[in-house]
Design goal:
The complex is a heterodimer of chains A (about 375) and B (about 130).
Chain A (H helix, E strand, L loop, with lengths): L1 E2 L3 H6 L3 E5 L2 E6 L3 H10 L2 E4 L4 E6 L3 H8 L12 E7 L5 E9 L4 E5 L4 H10 L7 E4 L4 E7 L3 H6 L2 E2 L11 E6 L2 E7 L8 E7 L3 H12 L5 E2 L2 H10 L36 H9 L3 E8 L10 E4 L2 E12 L4 E9 L8 E6 L2 E8 L11
Parallel strand pairs in A: 1-3, 4-15
Antiparallel strand pairs in A: 2-3, 4-10, 5-8, 5-9, 6-7, 7-8, 10-14, 11-12, 12-13, 13-14, 16-19, 16-21, 17-18, 17-20, 18-19, 20-21
Helix pairs in contact in A: 2-7
Chain B lengths: L6 E2 L4 E6 L2 E6 L1 H8 L6 E5 L6 E2 L4 E7 L3 E5 L4 E6 L2 H4 L2 H5 L8 E5 L12 H12 L1
Antiparallel strand pairs in B: 1-2, 2-3, 3-9, 4-6, 5-8, 6-7, 8-9
Classes of the chains: A alpha+beta (about 375), B alpha+beta (about 130).
């Protein structure tokens, strides 16, 4: 099991560490629900150093990314970021990732649990392309600031760059805590405004402490993976191993936006299978809410009039909605908002109701 | 030191004689694993109907926290006589006093005594969890 450069910081804060994707990671520092609320109202600091970070360099870097990824890398403007899938020939997702289109080459951020496999997969598909994939995971730290006060906090340690000019799903480079050319992206996995920072490995601890010190008056607090998971579920974002995996149809999970079926995109690994899967959708990923006491959990089945009609992908207690929520694949025809279903919790049935995802959007007021 | 007036299981239940009957609960360690000291993160406790017959090790209920579900397993075989109905509405009892007020079920045991080899005394239980932590 691997440790991030911030392990001792987490232990000093009294974090509970658990195994996640092969890493010892803080699942919580205090109450998961309180941590979730804090990100929605103030700001949270996350150690994401477990995530895989690759740099693809060489004349054909973009072509290699376009060969293995479903989104269209060549069409991403320099300075912008797109969500994409990495699929097998069978169209089933091997991972989901962010593609950063650099001035020179491409930067990829992948899931911790899939880092080694992704690296091998991408390299194996290079063929005669002039492209090299470097794994930067062990030489970098990754931190995220998430919440409405993120920009105000990050601005206190940032110079030689204007955060306000970095739009959503864009990135730039600035001096952070004296570190020149630090990669800063306006991205995150919580549904809030926020930033992700890529730092030299040895600087992660110092930047963490500096942000905590300056951010405290604005309410900044460390947030674990437990709250991160419920926040991403509220925001309707997929988690590999839950909404998508090696057996799922990503089009049923509503990830069409991550797959470029245009003629310009050309051939890519899994394209033919995905085109077929787009025509063979039988279920759709929706939200569910339940007024009952039990929290939906992955794998639990959904019933309607005694018939199995779906299964839960993720579930949790929503600090924002103050109820139990989940995401679930539900048979087409029963996927409309408001449809009443039953959640099976080890033989006991609990009513639940279909909702459109996301449960929460900071820009769309209900 | 955890109370020595009872026995412990590998799955973090405790069982204690109470006259002819036994009472069963979960340890502070189990509660800590579920909610890390945040009692608000405990969300649900499912306990069996009185009258149900349980085998040793049989799952008789579940405790759910924000992040996980834990099975409740019978430390001894017996019939459920009574359940602690106040737990469902007041999960915080489990974190405040898992040893007394936080009892979960009372069983009429099938055999007398708590001498089964799989049951541990407090010292053996503590040795087990300190090994689990490292």
């Amino acid at each position: 099991m691997k440790d991030t450069p911030l392990r001792s910081v987490h232990l000093d804060l009294g974090a509970r560490l658990v195994e996640f994707g092969g890493w010892n990671m803080p699942v919580q520092y205090g109450s998961i629900l309180e941590e979730g609320k804090l990100v929605r109202t103030a700001c949270g600091l996350f150690d994401l150093s477990h995530m895989g970070r690759f740099q693809v360099l060489g004349r054909d870097a973009v072509a290699l990314v376009d060969r293995v990824c479903t989104n269209h890398c060549a069409r991403i403007p320099v300075g912008a970021i797109r969500y994409s899938l990495l699929c097998g020939e069978d169209g089933h997702p091997l991972d989901d990732l962010l593609i950063y289109r650099d001035q020179v080459g491409v930067y990829l951020v992948v899931n911790a649990s899939n880092t080694a496999r992704d690296l091998e997969w991408i390299r194996a598909h290079a063929g005669t392309l002039a492209a090299e994939v470097r794994d930067l995971t062990d030489e970098t730290s990754m931190l995220a600031l998430q919440g409405p006060r993120s920009q105000e906090i990050l601005a206190q340690v940032t110079s030689a760059g204007d955060l306000a000019r970095i739009g959503y799903y864009k990135f730039g480079f600035a001096t952070v805590c004296g570190l020149p050319d630090t990669r800063i992206s306006r991205t995150g996995y919580t549904g809030e405004d926020g930033f992700e920072l890529y730092l030299p490995r040895a600087e992660g601890v110092r930047v963490w402490h500096e942000l905590m010190r300056l951010g405290k008056p604005a309410g900044l607090a460390p947030i674990g993976l437990g709250a991160r998971d419920i926040l991403r579920l509220e925001a309707g974002m997929a988690l590999y191993g839950h909404e998508i995996d090696e057996r799922s149809n990503p089009l049923e999970a509503g990830l069409d936006f991550a797959i470029a079926f245009t003629p310009e995109k050309g051939a890519f690994v899994g394209r033919a299978a995905l085109e077929r899967m787009a025509r063979e959708k039988r279920a759709r990923l929706v939200g569910i809410t339940t007024p009952g006491p039990r929290v939906p959990r992955q794998g639990q089945e959904l019933f309607r009039a005694g018939e199995r009609v779906g299964a839960v992908a993720s579930g949790g207690v929503s600090p924002t909605l103050d109820t139990n929520i989940g995401s679930a694949f539900v048979r087409l025809g029963l996927d409309q908002e408001g449809t009443e279903l039953e959640l099976d919790v080890r033989g006991k049935r609990q009513p639940c109701r279909v909702r459109e995802l996301p449960f929460y959007s900071r820009t769309r007021k209900k | 030191m955890r109370p020595n007036d009872r026995k412990y299981t590998k799955t973090h239940e405790w069982v204690k004689l109470s006259g002819e009957d036994v009472i069963v609960g979960i340890t502070d360690f189990a509660v800590q694993e579920l909610c890390s000291g945040n009692e608000g993160d405990l969300v649900y406790c499912d306990l069996p109907e009185p009258g149900r017959s349980l085998e040793v090790g049989e799952t008789f209920g579940e405790i759910e926290s924000v992040k996980a579900v834990a099975d409740l397993n019978a430390p001894v075989a017996g019939t459920v006589l009574e359940i602690n109905v106040s737990i469902e509405e007041h999960m915080e009892i489990l974190s405040k006093d898992p040893w007394n007020q936080g009892w979960l079920v009372k069983l009429q045991p099938r055999t007398k005594g708590l001498d089964a080899p799989e049951l541990m005394d407090a010292a053996a239980y503590e040795a087990m969890i300190s090994a689990e932590k490292h």
